[in-house]
């Protein structure tokens, strides 16, 4: 549990560094995107496949630790829907801060979608298992009548 907490703190620091560092040289290139899919099309239309993988894969990988660490740290956040909702809320907050405060950065809904997809993948691949291993389901008194034998 302590290791998961340390990993989450480290991830939060890396997330802040990756997303909240000003990019003054990019001010003229960056535009707010509130239309889902617009940035994805731009990423896919890039001539260099490596840049496409870097943009899409980087955003997916950025969200994956949420899917792994949330179920470990917060048993009530266990479940695919809860992981998706919490990750989406956190990423909307990060993108909002980026768009409002950080020079050379803008809000992009596609980044939120890709980050949330990464969290869902992280949860499905390993987070669900780790969450159940650390926090097994409790058996309540009413389970005598509601659980199948």
Automatic annotation (TrEMBL):
Keywords: Membrane, Signal, Transmembrane, Transmembrane helix. It holds the Pfam family VanZ. The keyword Nucleotide-binding does not apply. Residues 1-18 form the signal peptide. Residues 13-126 form the VanZ-like domain. The chain crosses the membrane at residues 56-74, 81-101, 113-131. InterPro entries: Teicoplanin_resist-assoc, VanZ-like. This is VanZ family protein.
